[in-house]
Write a structure and sequence with these properties.
Elements lengths: L2 E7 L3 E8 L5 E8 L13 E2 L2 H10 L10 E6 L4 E4 L9 E2 L7 H11 L2 H8 L8 H11 L1 H6 L2 E4 H9 L7 E3 H4 L5 E2 L4 E2 L1 H8 L7 E3 L4 E4 L5 E3 L2 E2 H9 L4 E7 L3 E5 L13 E4 L5 E7 L3 H11 L4 H8 L10 E3 L16 E3 L8 H24 L5 E7 L6 H11 L2 E5 L4 H18 L15 E4 L5 H18 L7
Parallel strand pairs: 1-5, 5-14, 5-15, 9-12, 16-22, 22-23
Antiparallel strand pairs: 1-2, 2-3, 4-7, 6-8, 10-11, 13-14, 16-17, 17-19, 18-19, 20-21, 23-24
InterPro entries: ATPase_NBD, Carb_kinase_FGGY, Carb_kinase_FGGY_CS, FGGY_C, FGGY_Carb_Kinase, FGGY_N
Protein name: Sugar kinase
Keywords: Carbohydrate metabolism, Kinase, Transferase, Xylose metabolism
């Protein structure tokens, strides 16, 4: 078939991979940071001029990187809202990331529609500060002039695709990106323009939602551009996820998502119902506390980093001599306990040692994510294999404990930009369909991620005992938290 490229525009950089369209083998790569001023060390600005994305794209593609490429797929950071005026210009810089300014707007929107259940049933998610629908409410409340000038809405990957195509009349998105907006339902496959009006105060034009293998268009030079998608959906496509697969992501907060054939409407709002980039669905459950609980424990113990904390925890044994940590340091979303604090239980003279506390922190983090997995399993989602992502997935104690606590095979992929690879796979799919060589319902069969596979093996019973110890403490501290 030829050569395709995947472009991933993350919050901090653009990465481009050029791949063989038949096998997915990465032939060339490019990288460039976004030319964006950081407000503080480690901080991410909540306002970004979208031109920064194009500048880093041009730099990453330098040196003839895209010569011979026949199709490009675009993956980009989710939740970045680009409001446009009547001429197609940006009304203001894009609102990106988990914008804390919008937290009040999120609560405001939840109440305006009649509560969490109403939102979950309408669009499969409850407004959070990061979502575009919430940013629209913030815009209407704090920048009413800009809100009035806003006549159409795009997300980051929509805007980049539109620019690559020369800003045509038609603006497009995909199911994956649309499902994160808060005004498109993965269950019904349609927009809820009334929710845009509820948030913004008036209607706005929304991009056409394309099918998974449908191209967004062709550049004047004849380069095919696929529909594009959000980073989460692109990474799932790059990893080669299918039915029976889940991803557990270990960031400061944690998330669990799985491939499922249908949308899950969860009246509690615990499950966010996203669409994937293949025509399937990606129900997601998040926890507020993952690696942040490890970092807090490392600081408490005076340990310099997570590697040292892992080494310390390996000196303990499964169950940490009865020490149990409920890692709800920032409150918690799963279970829904926004105002609670963490709990340390099982303190006895023999358990009061640094290595046991270190072990309890790792087990608490993984058991919290196992709770999130059980929310999906309880709704009929099959999980036979778990991809474990994030730098903490490389830690020896995580790899030792996770398979037994999750109860299935755990796969730790080798580090790679799976979002960019997924974008390239989408481009190859669109190209193949346009050439009549691929089925529009089935993406190209690329080789999956190179990974280390870890089995529960003989430790399964031990893991179940540790899990039961954790559940007992959770039920005692927060009775009925998962049934309220």
């Amino acid at each position: 078939m030829g050569i395709v490229a995947g472009l991933d525009s993350s919050p901090d950089f653009t990465r481009i991979v050029v791949c063989d369209s038949d096998t997915g083998a990465v032939l060339k790569q490019g990288y460039a940071p976004h030319p964006v001023d950081r407000p503080e060390k480690g901080g991410r600005p909540s306002d970004v001029d979208p031109q920064a994305w194009l500048l880093s794209l041009g730099e990453a593609a330098g040196g003839g990187l895209l010569e011979g490429v026949q199709a490009i797929g675009v993956s980009s950071q989710q939740n970045a809202l680009v409001p446009l005026d009547a001429q197609g210009g940006t009304v203001r810089p894009a609102l990106v990331g988990g914008d804390k300014r919008a937290q009040v707007a999120a609560a405001d929107l939840v109440d305006a529609l009649g509560g969490r259940r109403a939102w979950a049933e309408a669009v499969g998610s409850v407004p959070q500060a990061a979502q575009p629908v919430t940013k629209l409410r913030w815009l209407a409340r704090t920048e009413p002039d800009n809100a009035r000038r806003t006549v159409s809405l795009l997300q980051a990957h929509d805007w980049i695709v539109w620019q690559l195509l020369g800003r045509p009349m038609r603006r497009a998105t995909d199911r994956g990106g649309a499902s994160g907006t808060g005004y498109w339902s993965a269950a019904t496959g349609v927009y809820r323009p009334d929710l845009v009006e509820l948030a913004l105060g008036h209607q706005a034009a929304l991009p056409e939602v394309l099918g998974p293998s449908e191209p967004a268009g062709t550049t004047p030079e004849g380069l095919l551009i696929s529909a594009g998608t959000g980073e989460t959906m692109a990474a799932a496509l790059g990893l080669g996820m299918g039915l029976g697969d889940a991803v557990v992501s270990l960031g400061a907060s944690g998330s669990v998502m799985a491939v499922h054939p249908e949308a899950l409407v969860d009246s509690t709002g615990m499950i966010t119902s996203l669409a994937d980039a293949t025509g399937m669905h990606l129900p997601v459950v998040t926890t507020l506390n993952a690696v942040r609980a490890l970092r807090g424990t490392a600081e408490l113990l005076g340990v310099p980093d997570l590697e040292a904390l892992s080494e310390l925890a390996m000196k303990s044994t499964p169950g940490a001599h009865g020490l149990v940590m409920l890692p709800y340091l920032e409150g918690e979303r799963t279970p829904n306990l926004p105002h609670t604090a963490g709990t340390l239980a099982g303190l006895r003279r023999e358990s009061m040692k640094p290595e046991h506390l270190a072990r309890a922190a790792f087990e608490g983090m993984l058991c919290g994510l196992a709770d999130a997995l059980d929310v999906l399993r309880g709704r009929g989602v099959e999980v036979r294999r778990i991809f474990l992502l994030g730098p903490a997935a490389e830690l020896p104690v995580v790899q030792a404990a996770a398979p037994a606590l999750f109860g299935v095979q755990v796969v730790v992929p080798q580090p790679a930009d799976y979002a960019a690879i997924g974008a390239a796979r989408q481009a190859a799919w669109s190209l193949g369909v346009s050439q009549g060589t691929l089925d529009p319902r089935t993406p190209p069969a690329w080789q999956g991620a190179a990974a280390q596979a870890l089995e529960p093996g003989d430790e399964l019973a031990v893991g179940q005992a540790v899990r039961q110890q954790y559940v007992s403490v959770r039920e005692q501290a927060h009775p009925g938290a998962f049934h309220a």
